[in-house]
Automatic annotation (TrEMBL):
Entry's Gene Ontology cellular component terms: endoplasmic reticulum; membrane
Keyword Cytoplasm among UniProt keywords: no
Primary site of residence: membrane
TM spans (from-to): 12-31, 75-95, 313-333, 345-367, 379-402
This protein's name: (Perigord truffle) hypothetical protein
Membrane topology: Multi-pass membrane protein
One of the GO BP terms on file: transmembrane transport
Amino acid sequence: MSDSGASLKQSFLGALQASLSVLLTLGYGVLSAKLRLVHPRSVGDVSRLCVDVFLPALLITSIGRQLTLEGVGNYAPFIVWGIVYTFTSIALGALGKKVMNLPDWIVPAVAFNNTTSLPLLLMQSLAATGILKGISGGGQRDAVERAKSYFLINSMVSNTLMFALGPKLMDKNESESANGRDAEAQRDQDSDENASLLPALVRIRVHSVQSSAHRQFTKLPTRAQSTLSFAGDMVNPPLVGAIVAAFIGLVPSLHKSFFADMEDGGVCRAWLTSSISNIGDLFTALQMFVVGSRLCDSLDPEQEIGEIPKRGVAFVWGVRFLFCPAVAIPAVYCLARNNLLGEDPVLWFSMMLMPVGPSAMMMSSLVEMNGNSPKDKMAVARFLTMSYAISPIICFVVVVSLKASEMAVRG
């Protein structure tokens, strides 16, 4: 067998092993839920903990370490890329829903893919197989760290757009959704107050401030209310984590304090940075485990499930696994060959993979917020289960992206 053929076979086997590793991690979550080792409410709490605490911590350490004043320009291309492919996917989803008369959840299913836990775990597995040598430009560990920072920034962009636009993409009465969210928020507030350890006077004062702020908000013009609501939807813990990471990375004195060796001035590295890194490292595998646990109920044959149109499933999978890589890989390759994306092949490889993969797990939350029926919610859960079950086919995209990046390096 020729060297190129052997290299292709090795790349394919490595990508397949990495994809299976991701699927097995997901399966461990399903198995644990089946054996009742985890409770549904506990799974929800851990999932929220992953997004609100572990992911921001991972963003701070990964992005902050890679982001410097000298290299800040490297991040611009894939921030723009993330926005472009997301809005393109939204347009495709809206068009497909209208033409084929598909359920309302099809649009966000097409628009938003898993941009966090799956690609991060995939990169870790790819590093273990050793197939990133051709584009690492040095040690594979450093290449994986760069790829993680790229995927995390893309995740921040995707999650921000998902939280802001996702509920609006569902074809329901917006005021009903808003009322549902207000009612849910009120129940959460009541629950928090009932369980609060704060003194009664403090709770009363907090409630008074909240009520006053709400009254002032309702006095604003409708356009101003809509603008502020949209801005509020975009603010979320991962975005805050990314902002903190950028601040630490771009301020030279802070970057040195957090990430330099002790003898070079890294006074925070051994204690503060290390502690943040410890909880950030919990995110990747734990989030995929939680995803598997949440998908477990959809495998119950006794559950009543709404219609899952075959043409809708085929449409989503066609966009996510075929159309996106068919467009992304040649586009990024051409940009890289024309020296428009810098000189980091790991960046090119990451950009080729970013639009590819199954729909985001946030889909289930969007359906919940939209007030769909229990059957629709279970249909979405079953659809997500099937999507993640076939996710190992991404290994073909990994191989093609890897070879395209290597070709771009050789010029």
